[in-house]
Each structure stands twice: as structure tokens, then as C-alpha cells.
Automatic annotation (TrEMBL):
InterPro entries: Beta-barrel_TonB (IPR000531), Beta-barrel_TonB_sf (IPR036942), CarboxyPept-like_regulatory (IPR008969), Plug_dom (IPR012910), Plug_dom_sf (IPR037066), TonB-dep_OMP_SusC/RagA (IPR023996), TonB-dep_OMP_SusC/RagA_CS (IPR023997), TonB-dep_rcpt-like (IPR039426). This is TonB-linked outer membrane protein, SusC/RagA family. The keyword Transmembrane applies. Keywords: Cell outer membrane, Membrane, TonB box, Transmembrane, Transmembrane beta strand, Transport.
Length: 1027
């Protein structure tokens, strides 16, 4: 046989063998269920010894082609024991997986590692995104609302792109920041409240580290708790393409408090001006600015026909869109995930818009038989915001939009200084912001020994923001006074974090489990900002596109640069004996460039103990508990959330008013006004080289309980957080020659309890019903504000309490409503008490009132010190904006492919200072008059001197149906290209039960209701398909 014939013969044999092999493949299928017969979606079926596998669909069904009858398949799913079956002659399988009690201890992410949940000694709560599949949210903050006991999430505004306020176990700082740290895939990227870089669709799970035992590993950044985010990685043993679309339609939750009857509005306006000694407006003449106000007769007989509903002009029914496309894949060696999210959000105001694009890439690759893993994560986001959220929907209805109500004519302006015409502002001014963010990380993970692992991770983050603004010569106050004003504000930052650590994990004699971790961290941060401003424009056709068109003598340039460095060493040791007794110890040392050499370094230790009592025979004999674990921990964490360079002398533009004039820290200053044009700088504060870290000591004791085959689970915690050496800016007297100085001065205590109850009430093959209840009670107290003399505190004349004012001034009352008072909660309200309304001048004089305040229709302030005079010594604490407790209730039910969930949340016991309690359409008609001598509302009087009083304090408790979701899983559609699908409808902010008279009771932590950007009711229609 020649060579060519041998080749042909060999080829024929190979073809026959290949065909034989192909023909030998067997197609098998079946369903995977739990012990109750309920299908398990997402279970993994793997042909043993190969990479050939499949995943069950929503019905628990699968199809797989295996090599031969001799093949074996492995069926696995988290929380269940792995089943191994030989194929044999069967082609259809019904596989029932048994629960694995050990596997039920899911792995949770903690700082610089992960642990079995059953081995945790700290207070850590895990939130899996698969548990809330139909909860749409534009931010990760919103995803946490109502999911974790002890975490308060306040969404006080639906302003496009706005974040939320997140507090874990209350606020522990006055000036150093109270936002928890957020760590994404091991990279501490920033703080909660402004995390636009992360798309909620890219998150797999979140762990909340609440006590010091869990968070102290992050040292100076962990005092307010830590939120650990794990993003989605590659799909197991397959390639998946997921497409989701969400459309949200929004509307007001109730009618706005606006004037609908111009006649009544005019009558009350005239009444108020007459009572105040002013000439009434609505008398058919022009005012001092040349604005014609019709008479009451013209309004009543219709000869003045304009009655503009400005809310119809200013507001719209906004629509938001969220589109996500993701490709995820995994082989034996490589995990790959790429997703992109495009989000657009219309605000309720016209031309008030926000849009954002997010791209997330995750790659992990294993080398050398899995002993080395390399990978990285890239997150890129960009977006822009057109801001028109200040349009005057409250504008006077007698003014038309255009002259003669004709859109072809000019805007109708109420005089030469009308700065509130909404259409004129939208069409003529510029107020936009563009941002770009990049987050990148790369790591290498090396298995040096079977029990020893080395990991190095390099993280980099950069952000850029550009704000453009221009105020034209007319329509805007700043533009009118400056003959046009505009500017460009640039801000960019860079942050590098490099970390290397070793992890040792070893089990000895099947009873002693040791885990030790130690490493180093380096963090570098720098930020630059510049602000270019121009005024007095000869030609404003290009707006801020040509700042050179402004007057050269009035152009200003300001820039700032900050740089901080922190070095850290860290370590953690875990020990578990006999799967019963646990101990955890951590230590971190941080050195920060924000502090001087004498206080640069701080040390943050923590320790915790745990006892799995359910593993003891005497507990097992009770046959009551599936889990009974007790935990106790103590630790110290810190806070350095202040600006750099406070240990140095610095310049600023701050001034104070003394002896009838404005004074700077270095002598008499220039006239305050439009001083930004001068470019002058004044002394910004005395340096304090002895500044040091805030320190928070936290004690926690808690327990985890499970009953009835884990159908009922309870977690209970008590904590005490005590913060000392508060970083505060102390105002100094003018005689000191300086305005202010940063100091360590004061102490705050937070203590409370947290309760979480999770239950599966009913479950069978078709039906399931369960829910969770969360309760949190936190009590905070300002223990100390330093020495009264050195800290500049004021002493309350009635009680002797030492206090200082805190927060913003409410101009209508010429006062700051909030104070920090020793022995009281943070930001309590301070002012006068009111005992009804003065009904006669004699009654007013008898109450200690004088002048106009003693007249009928005025507030009857209480003379608390009974000295016969109403003055500042009669003020007292009149309210507390902190809730007594917060609670939430989640309910879920399902029937076959249908599911429904409801989420209620509530806040109870807080007070609200309502700045809109009087002076609006809904309450002005209730005023006091001789014919209506009410004891509830004062009379109308322009020029009245208002005082901060408890009359404006309202009960702010509320219960809200925050979320309602109805979904259907597309399990019965037999399409070979569709793995799974889901359709859902979701409603948020559906109704609120409250006694609060304002628009919405969910407001900021200071408790002041300003009537700002309204919260909306939202309905979302969403679909998701995986191929």
C-alpha cells in the first residue's frame, strides 16, 4: 500500500470514528426541584469531567447533550447538596435536591475578604439583588431603602439625578461627614449619596457592615459604616445576553397649594397690606415698579381676564427610560461580563433633564490550573444635567405668559425687575452640567500555598465636571445688576488606591479553623477646580461661550488645588473552634496628610466573639432552634472627613459684621455685595497644628435565630456608638483677630436596637407567601460641645443648657431653627412657644407682649420665665427632627409564574419645622379676623416680625406604600433562543398616611420643610429577556 492510499484509509477511519462519536451523543433533559417539588431555576447541570453544561430555566427544566450512557452529571445549586447521577438508559430525569444546612451559610463579602455567614461575629446584613427583582431604582441608595435594619435612607427630592441621604445607626459627626463608605469590588470609591457611576442593574449583592467589628478594618473611613457592593460577573458555564427596558411615568402625589381664585388672592393681599400700614396693590393703579394691578372690581366683573395656571405652564408629566444590555459568559478559566445602561430622566419642571450612560466591564481569568487569577473591572459613566428646577410655579395668576396673552408677542414682565418669568428663564439663560467618571481596577490573586494566598489590587478613579451658566441682562437678577453675567466652573479629581495583602486559611484537626489576613494600603487623592466669571457684556449673543465679551476689568479667575495621602497597615484574625465558638480581631493603622506630625497616625482595633449555641447538645435536645447564635463586639473607628490644609494658615473670603460695618480677620474689609468681582481675599482662619482624628467607639451585642426549618429567622442587635474629639469649626470673637478655627471639641452618643424578622408563612408547589419586618430605634445625644468659654456656647436662660446654633438661617424668621445643645439630640428646634392667638390688646399686654405684637390677631407668645416681658430669654427647645424609630414591612406572594410584592416604610416621632404653615393659598383664608376670631391662625399683616416658634412645628410621622410590584415570569414560552424572561409593573410612592400639612413629610435630617422639589408618584413598566 503506497503512502497516498494509507493516508486515504486513515482519513476514512477517522471520519467513521468521528461519526460514530457524534452518533453516540445522547440528548437528556428533565427538571430540578427542591424537596417540596418546587422548581429550582438557575441550577447548574455539568457533565462530569468536562466543561459541557447547562442551566435550568424558571421552571427548573434543562436540556443537555452528553457523550454516552456512561456519562455522569453533577447537579448543583447554592444552599443544596450536589447530586451526582449516571445517565445510563434514561433520557428524562426528575432530580430533587436536598437542602444543605452548611451551604445555607451563604458567603458574604466583608472588608478585604469573604466569610461564611454563620462564622460572622459582627453585625453584617446582606442584600441580594435577586431577592428584589422588580424594584426599579436610579441609584444604589434607593435599593437599600427598607432592606436593612438600622439603615435610614431619605429621598427628600425627585430632582433629576438626585441621590439620597443614607445613615447607618445615626449621625456620629457634626462636620466630619456622616455618609457611609461605599466599596465596589474591593475599591473604596466614595460615599453614599452621590454614586452615579454605578448602575443598579450591574449589582449582584450588597453587604452593609454596621458595627465596628466589621467596619474597623477600613479605619478612618469606616466610622459611619460600610456598604460593600459586588458587581455581576460571568454567567456559569454558559454565555448569556440579557436585555431589559424600564419606562417610568411620573405625576404629583397631590394637588399643589396654589392660588386658583385671583379674586380671593387679591382680597387677602389688600387686607394684609392694609393691616400692615401699606397701600393695597389691587386698586387699579401701577405700583412703584410700573406694574399695573387690576382692581377687585376688574377681577370680579371679568374685565381683567387673565388667570394663568402657572403650574400648567411650568410642570409636565415626566417620563424616564432605562435601557440595559449585558453579555456575560464563563468557562473553566474565564469569566466575562460587559454591560451598558442608558438612562434618561425628565424632571417635573419643563426643560429640566438628566441623562447618563454607564459601561461596566468585568474580566477574571485563571492561570496555572487555577492557582493564579488575574482580572479587572472598568466602569465608565458620562452624563449631563440641564437644570431648571427653580421655575416659579407660584407666580401671580393675574400675569399672562405673553403680552396680551399672545404667544407671538414678548413675554409679559411684571416691571423692570421681574426675575421669575419661567418661560423667559428657560429660553434665555444657561445652566448646564456635564460629568465624566472612570473607575478602573486590576488585580492578581496568587495561591502561594494550599492555605496561603497573596492578592494585589491597583485601583484608579478620575472624575470631571463642567458647569456652564449665563444670566442675561434681563429676566435674571444677577444678569440685570451686572449687565449680563456668566461663567464656567471646572472640577476634576484623581484617586489611586494600591493594596496588597496575604490571607492564610487553615483547618487543624477538623475543629480549629484559622483565617488570618494582613496587608498594606496606599491612597492618593488630588482635585483641581477653576471658576471663570465675567460681567458687563457688550454682546451676549454667545453667552458664556465668549467670556472675553465681558468687561476685562470685571473678569475673575479663581482656582483651587487639594492633595491628600494616606498610608495604612491592616490585619484581621478569625478563629472558629468546633464550629461553635468564634473570635475575630482586627487592627488598622492610618496615617493621613491632613494632620500634623504629632497626630498623623491613628490606630483602630476591634474584637468580637460569637457562640453557635444551636451546635450544643443541650440546645439540640430542645428541638426548637435551627440556629441560635450570640454575638458581641467592640471596636474603634475614626473620621478624617475634613478639608486638607486646616493645620496651615489659609486665605478665604469670609467676613463678620461688627460695630456697624463688615470686618475681615485682618482689619476693616471692603463693602460686601458683588465682591466676587474684586478678586480680593481675606484671612480664612487660624491654623490648628494639633488637629487629630475623630474617634468612634462602638459596642454591639446581638443574636441570630432560626426556627421551623429556617422558615422563621430573627436578628436582634443592640449598639452603642460614642464619638469623641469631634472635628468642628469654632467661630471666634472679633477680638481674636481671626474669624474661625477648626478644633477637636465635643462628644456625641448614639445607641439603639435593630430587629429583623424574616418568615416563609406558606409554601407549596404553586403558592408561596412570606415577608420581612424591620424595626430600628436610634437615640442620639450631644454629650459635650467643649468648654463654654472656649467654644463660644450660649447658655439657655431657663434651663442652663449650653448650646450653639447649627445649620441655615430661615430669612422669614431671622433665625436659625436648629441648635446643638448639650444633653439633647442633634439639631433640636429652638424658639418661642405660642399659646394661641391674641384676641384683644388687653390680652396681649397681659401676656407680656408690646407694640404690634400685642394687637389682636398676633401670635400669643408665652412668657416662660414669667418676668412680664417677651424676649430671647423666653426661648426653649420646641421640637426634635430625629425620629423615635423607623420601620418597614415587605410582603411577597407568588402563584405559579405570577408574583406580587408590597413594601411599606414609615418613620415615627419626628418633628418638622414647616416654613409653609402660613402665607399660601391653602391656609391664608383661615386667618384671624374680627369676624373669624380663630385661635389657630394669625391675621394677615405685611411687615410682620415673625419669630421662630412651635406654631410652625408639626408632627412628621408617616407610613407610606413605597413600592408595589406585580410580575410574571415567562416560563411557559417554548422558544429555544429564550432562557428566561420577565414582565413587571411597579409603582413607587403610591400613598402616604400622615398628619403633616405640607406636600411630603420625608425631608432632610435637619427637619426643615422648605417646599422644595416635589416627590412624585411613579409607575414603571419593565421587561427583561435573557438569551
Amino acid at each position: 500500500m503506497n503512502k497516498q492510499n494509507r493516508i486515504w484509509l486513515l482519513s476514512a477511519i477517522l471520519i467513521v470514528l468521528c461519526v460514530g462519536t457524534i452518533n453516540a451523543q445522547i440528548n437528556i433533559g428533565g427538571v430540578v426541584t427542591d424537596q417540596l417539588g418546587l422548581p429550582i431555576p438557575g441550577a447548574n447541570i455539568l457533565e462530569k469531567g468536562t466543561t459541557n453544561g447547562a442551566t435550568t430555566d424558571f421552571d427548573g427544566k434543562f436540556q443537555l447533550a452528553v457523550a454516552s450512557k456512561k456519562s455522569s452529571i453533577e447537579v448543583s445549586f447554592m444552599g443544596f447538596q450536589t447530586a451526582v447521577l449516571q445517565v445510563g438508559d434514561k433520557t428524562t430525569f426528575t432530580i430533587s435536591l436536598k437542602e444543605d444546612v452548611a451551604a445555607l451559610d451563604e458567603v458574604v463579602v466583608v472588608g478585604y475578604g469573604s466569610m461564611k455567614k454563620s462564622d460572622l461575629t459582627g453585625s453584617v446584613t446582606s442584600v441580594k439583588m435577586d431577592d428584589i427583582p422588580s424594584k426599579p431604582s436610579n441609584s444604589i441608595d434607593g435599593l437599600l431603602q427598607g432592606q436593612v435594619a438600622g439603615v435610614q435612607v431619605i429621598t427628600s427630592s425627585d430632582d433629576p439625578g438626585a441621590g439620597a441621604t443614607v445613615r447607618i445607626r445615626g449621625g456620629s459627626s457634626l462636620n466630619g461627614g456622616n455618609d457611609p463608605l461605599v466599596v465596589v469590588d474591593g475599591f473604596p470609591i466614595g460615599y453614599a449619596g452621590d454614586l452615579k457611576q454605578i448602575s443598579p442593574q450591574d449589582i449582584a449583592s450588597m453587604e452593609v457592615l454596621k458595627d465596628a467589628s466589621a467596619s474597623a478594618i477600613y479605619g478612618s473611613r469606616g466610622a459611619n459604616g460600610v456598604i460593600m457592593i459586588t458587581t455581576k460577573k460571568g454567567a456559569k458555564h454558559t454565555t448569556e445576553v440579557t436585555v431589559s427596558q424600564q419606562n417610568t411615568f411620573s405625576s404629583f402625589t397631590s394637588d399643589l397649594n396654589l392660588w386658583r381664585d385671583p379674586v380671593l388672592m387679591a382680597e387677602l393681599s389688600n387686607e394684609s397690606r392694609i393691616n400692615g400700614g401699606f397701600v393695597p396693590l389691587y386698586i387699579g393703579t401701577e405700583d412703584a415698579n410700573g406694574v399695573y394691578y387690576p382692581s377687585l372690581g376688574e377681577l370680579k366683573d371679568g374685565s381683567w381676564s387673565y388667570n394663568t395656571k402657572w403650574d400648567d405652564v411650568v410642570f409636565r408629566s415626566p417620563v424616564s427610560n432605562n435601557t440595559n444590555l449585558a453579555i456575560r459568559s464563563q468557562t473553566d478559566k474565564t469569566q466575562f461580563s460587559l454591560s451598558t445602561t442608558h438612562f434618561t430622566q425628565e424632571g417635573v419642571y419643563i426643560e429640566d433633564d438628566y441623562k447618563k450612560l454607564n459601561i461596566n466591564l468585568n474580566v477574571i481569568h485563571k492561570l496555572y490550573d487555577g492557582k493564579v487569577s488575574v482580572g479587572g473591572n472598568v466602569i465608565y459613566s458620562k452624563g449631563d444635567r440641564t437644570n431648571n428646577s427653580d421655575l416659579a410655579y407660584w407666580r401671580n395668576p393675574i400675569f399672562p405668559v405673553y403680552e396680551n396673552n399672545d404667544p407671538t408677542q414678548d413675554y409679559f414682565l411684571a416691571g423692570s425687575q421681574d426675575y421669575s418669568h419661567p418661560i423667559a428663564l428657560v429660553e434665555n439663560r444657561t445652566n448646564t452640567n456635564e460629568f465624566k467618571d472612570f473607575i478602573g481596577s486590576a488585580f492578581v490573586d496568587i495561591q502561594l500555598l494550599p492555605s496561603l494566598k497573596l492578592k494585589t489590587q491597583l485601583n484608579y478613579k478620575t472624575g470631571q465636571s463642567i458647569t456652564d451658566y449665563y444670566n442675561p441682562k434681563i429676566y435674571t437678577e444677577d444678569g440685570t445688576f451686572n449687565n449680563g453675567s456668566g461663567g464656567i466652573n471646572n472640577w476634576d479629581s484623581e484617586e489611586t488606591v494600591a493594596e496588597t495583602f496575604l490571607t492564610y486559611n487553615k483547618m487543624f484537626n477538623e475543629k480549629h479553623k484559622f483565617t488570618a489576613m494582613g496587608g498594606f494600603s496606599y491612597q492618593y487623592y488630588e482635585a483641581r477646580s477653576s471658576d471663570l466669571k465675567a460681567y458687563d457684556f457688550l454682546n451676549e449673543s454667545l453667552g458664556n461661550g465668549n467670556l472675553a465679551a465681558g468687561n476685562p476689568e470685571k473678569q475673575t479667575v479663581a482656582n483651587a488645588y487639594t492633595e491628600t495621602v494616606m498610608y495604612s497597615g491592616l490585619g484581621r484574625f478569625n478563629y472558629v473552634y468546633d464550629d461553635k465558638y468564634m473570635a475575630t480581631f482586627t487592627m488598622r493603622a492610618d496615617g493621613s496628610s491632613k494632620f500634623g506630625d504629632n497626630n498623623k497616625w491613628a490606630y483602630f482595633p476591634s474584637g468580637a466573639l460569637g457562640w453557635k449555641m444551636h451546635q450544643e447538645d443541650f440546645i439540640k435536645d430542645l428541638d426548637v432552634f435551627n440556629e441560635l447564635k450570640l454575638r458581641a463586639s467592640f471596636g474603634i473607628s475614626g473620621n478624617q472627613g475634613i478639608s486638607p490644609y486646616l493645620i496651615n494658615s489659609r486665605y478665604g473670603q469670609d467676613q463678620y459684621y461688627v460695630n456697624g460695618g463688615w470686618q475681615t480677620a485682618i482689619g476693616p474689609g471692603y463693602v460686601v455685595g458683588w465682591d466676587s468681582q474684586t478678586g480680593k481675599k481675606t484671612w480664612g482662619g487660624i491654623p490648628n497644628p494639633d488637629l487629630k482624628w475623630e474617634t468612634t467607639r462602638q459596642f454591639n451585642i446581638g443574636g441570630d435565630f432560626a426556627f421551623f426549618d429556617r422558615k422563621l429567622k430573627v436578628t436582634l442587635d443592640y449598639y452603642n456608638k460614642y464619638t469623641t474629639d469631634l472635628l468642628r469649626e469654632r467661630l471666634l470673637s472679633p477680638s481674636s483677630s481671626y474669624d474661625k478655627m477648626w478644633v477637636n471639641d465635643g462628644e456625641i452618643e448614639n445607641q439603639g436596637i435593630e430587629l429583623t424578622i424574616n418568615g416563609t408563612i406558606f409554601k407549596n408547589e404553586d403558592w408561596s407567601f412570606g415577608g420581612s419586618l424591620m424595626f430600628s430605634k436610634n437615640k442620639n445625644e450631644v454629650v459635650s460641645l467643649g468648654n463654654e468659654l472656649s467654644s463660644g456656647l450660649t447658655t439657655d436662660a431657663l434651663t442652663g443648657i449650653k448650646y450653639e446654633f447649627s445649620g441655615s438661617t430661615v430669612e422669614a424668621f431671622r433665625a436659625i431653627p436648629n441648635i446643638l445643645a448639650v444633653g439633647q439630640p442633634i439639631n433640636v428646634f429652638y424658639g418661642y412657644r405660642v399659646d394661641g392667638i391674641v384676641q384683644s390688646e388687653a390680652e396681649g399686654l397681659a401676656a407680656g407682649l408690646t407694640g404690634d405684637l400685642a394687637q389682636p390677631g398676633e401670635f400669643k407668645y408665652v412668657d416662660l420665665n414669667e418676668d412680664g416681658v417677651i424676649d430671647e430669654d423666653d426661648r426653649s427647645i420646641i421640637g426634635d427632627p430625629n425620629p423615635d424609630f423607623i420601620a418597614s414591612l415587605n410582603l411577597q406572594a407568588s402563584y405559579k409564574n405570577f408574583d406580587i410584592s408590597m413594601f411599606f416604610n414609615g418613620s415615627f416621632g419626628q418633628d418638622i419645622f414647616n416654613t409653609k404653615s402660613f402665607g399660601e393659598a391653602g391656609n391664608m383664608p383661615l386667618r384671624w379676623t374680627q369676624d373669624n376670631p380663630t385661635n389657630s391662625y394669625p391675621s394677615l399683616r405685611d411687615g410682620r416680625t415673625n419669630y421662630m416658634s412651635d406654631w410652625y412645628i408639626e408632627e412628621g410621622s408617616f407610613v407610606r406604600l413605597q413600592n408595589l410590584s406585580i410580575g410574571y415570569n415567562l416560563n411557559d414560552i417554548d422558544l429555544p433562543w429564550l432562557k428566561r424572561g420577565r414582565i413587571f409593573v411597579n409603582g413607587t410612592n403610591l400613598f402616604t398616611i400622615t398628619d403633616f400639612k405640607g406636600y411630603d413629610p420625608e425631608i432632610g435630617t435637619d427637619g426643615i420643610y422648605w417646599g422644595g422639589y416635589p416627590k412624585l408618584r411613579n409607575w414603571t413598566l419593565g421587561v427583561e429577556f435573557t438569551f
